[in-house]
Design a protein that fits this description.
Shape of chain B: elongated
Helix content of chain B: over 70%
CATH class of the largest domain in chain A: Alpha Beta
Radius of gyration of chain B: 19 Å
Order of helices and strands of chain B: HHEH
Radius of gyration of chain A: 58 Å
Number of helices of chain B: 3
CATH architecture of the largest domain in chain A: 3-Layer(aba) Sandwich
Order of helices and strands of chain A: HEEEHEEHEHEHEHEHEHHHHEHEE
Largest sheet of chain A: 5 strands, mixed, barrel
Helix content of chain A: 40-55%
Number of domains of chain B: 1
Oligomer: heterodimer
Strand content of chain A: 15-25%
Number of strands of chain A: 13
Number of strands of chain B: 1
Shape of chain A: rod-shaped
Largest interface: A-B, 41 and 36 residues
CATH topology of the largest domain in chain A: Rossmann fold
Chain lengths: ~450, ~80
């Protein structure tokens, strides 16, 4: 390492500055400086009110900081505030400027804002503050965040921040039941109208959001003046809501857009009843009816699709059979035609062949015996076999039947069969009568 | 069911698409039967979701919910 560290007691050389001055004189100078600063109006919430014999003291604060304040009791009396209204949680406007008490031999020095006048903040003061805060949060993009979250149509568990005793709680429950919703409501009760309200509501919202089952959070309270609802304009509370990953439904008071939480929440409602509808967007009774209808549509579609195609499928199934019957009829017709032609040809050829055979046999007889005789006899036998194959009786022996009318003429087509009415079926071993019943 | 829907609303949206397609009359027999099967699965899922919030409203305080959660976590770990 090799580094040499300077000992602590070696003082760093003091910078070249004016002085040193006596501190008492400096303190008085500081007091003069402070008192020369511009007098202004401040607005904020009163906390830590106390009184001495001659003056009242308190802190004036908001979400970003605080200033210790004092006011002479004479000035306080002149302000004409209603009795007891300078109390913790009161929103006030004070007039005055910074002051510094240099202390004394025994008394400690202190800084304070010396108020010379005080009044309760009016609606206009609060609205001006609200507007400034609204602009700031909007510029930071905090109004869009919750709106981008998915709100489940049918949450199973919702969290609710509200006062334990209040109409808002009852109205919200009634609204949920009217929805036909029977899930779980998780209550996180909090004061909704004093200086403890904003931090308590903020903590309740954070605690609910930390529960994995909670799918949406409702923040609600009944109506009131802007001062009554002021906790719901708290900057920390609104920043917390804006950054949550769970959708928040706000239903504070009855006036739309009167509180800042309405701007940062996923959805703002005018009443707890509307908040119930926003937290559970689905009307369960209507949804059940819709599902029943959908199920009926599906059943009809499935049955209808099969039924509509049945005739076509049946027709397709019958196609081969019809084609087969057509082919069979055509084949039978051909067979009949061939048979008729064969019978006509055989009669002619038979006479000719018999004549030829007679000549041949005569020649054979004349040539008497010998090898030539034997060969010619064999050839003659083959011719005879071939001839027999063409005789109609051979066809009948193979299972065919010849249809003849009463006169013994062959019936070769359907119209002839219908005309004949009664026919004879000639088989190889005999003939039977038959009646034509139907002409298809 | 081939795949569990992402949410109730996703299931209903798909169900509406299926019914629109069936109503169009453009689906063939095979597609119709497949869509009907998928649609029936979605109806079953949605009905179960509605049944889960259909047994009467329950109320819990936040600390009770947290205690229940802690107890079930312990039971799961035991």
């Amino acid at each position: 390492m090799g580094e040499t560290l300077e000992p602590d007691h070696i003082a760093v050389r003091a910078p070249q500055l004016p002085g040193p001055f006596a501190v008492g004189r400096y303190a008085r100078k500081l007091q003069e400086e402070m008192r020369r600063r511009a007098r202004v109006l401040l607005i904020g919430e009163v906390t830590g009110v106390g009184r001495s014999k001659v003056q009242a003291y308190f802190e004036l604060r908001d979400g970003e900081g605080a200033v210790p304040c004092v006011i002479w009791l004479d000035d306080l009396e002149k302000a004409g505030l209603p009795e007891g209204s300078l109390r913790d949680g009161a929103e006030v406007v004070i007039a005055g400027g910074p002051d510094y008490y240099p202390g004394g031999g025994q008394a400690s020095p202190s800084f304070s804002f010396r108020a010379t006048h005080v009044r309760l903040a009016g609606e206009g003061d609060l609205l001006a503050r609200l507007e400034a805060l609204r602009k700031q949060l909007k510029a930071e993009g905090l109004f869009q965040l919750q709106g981008q979250l998915r709100r489940p149509a049918l949450p199973k568990t919702i969290g609710v921040v509200t006062a334990e005793s209040g109409a808002a709680r009852r109205d919200l429950l009634a609204g949920l039941e009217r929805r036909g919703w029977g899930g779980t409501v998780v209550w996180a009760f909090a004061p909704v109208q004093d200086r403890h309200a904003a931090p308590a509501i903020t903590a309740a919202i954070q605690d609910l959001a930390a529960q994995p089952q909670v799918e949406a959070i409702v923040v609600t309270r009944g109506g009131g003046s802007l001062a009554d609802l002021w906790a719901f304009c708290d900057e920390t509370l609104c920043r917390t809501v804006a950054m949550l990953r769970v959708p928040v439904v706000s239903a504070v008071g009855h006036e739309r857009d009167s509180t800042l939480i309405d701007d940062v929440a996923a959805i703002a409602c005018s009443t707890p009843t509307h908040a119930a509808e926003a937290a559970v967007p689905l009307d369960c009774g209507t949804a059940r009816l819709g599902l029943e209808r959908a199920a009926a549509v599906l059943s009809r579609a499935a049955e209808g699709a099969v039924r509509a195609r049945t005739p076509h499928l049946v027709a397709l199934a019958r196609g081969p059979a019809r084609a087969l019957r057509r082919e069979r009829l055509a084949l039978n017709q051909k067979t009949r035609e061939i048979r008729a032609a064969s019978e006509r040809g055989i009669a002619g050829r038979l006479g000719f062949q018999r004549r030829v055979a007679g000549v041949v046999l005569e020649r054979a007889a004349r040539r008497a015996a010998g090898a030539e005789m034997e060969r010619r006899r064999a050839a003659l036998h083959r011719a005879e076999v071939a001839l027999r194959a063409h005789e109609p009786e051979r066809t009948l022996e193979r299972g065919y039947a010849l249809v003849e009318d009463r006169q013994g003429e062959p019936v070769t087509d359907v119209s002839a069969a219908s005309a004949a009415e009664r026919v004879k079926l000639r088989f190889a071993d005999g003939t039977v009568g038959a009646r034509i019943e139907e002409n298809r | 069911m081939s795949e569990k829907p992402e949410s109730y609303e996703a299931a209903v949206e798909r169900l509406e698409q299926i019914i629109d397609r069936l109503d169009s009359g453009q689906a063939g027999l095979r597609e119709t039967l497949e869509l009907c099967g998928e649609g029936r699965d979605l109806v079953t899922y949605c009905t179960a979701e509605l049944d889960a919030v259909g047994e009467g409203l329950k109320e819990l305080k936040l600390d009770e919910l947290a205690a229940n959660l802690a107890a079930s976590t312990e039971a799961g770990g035991a």
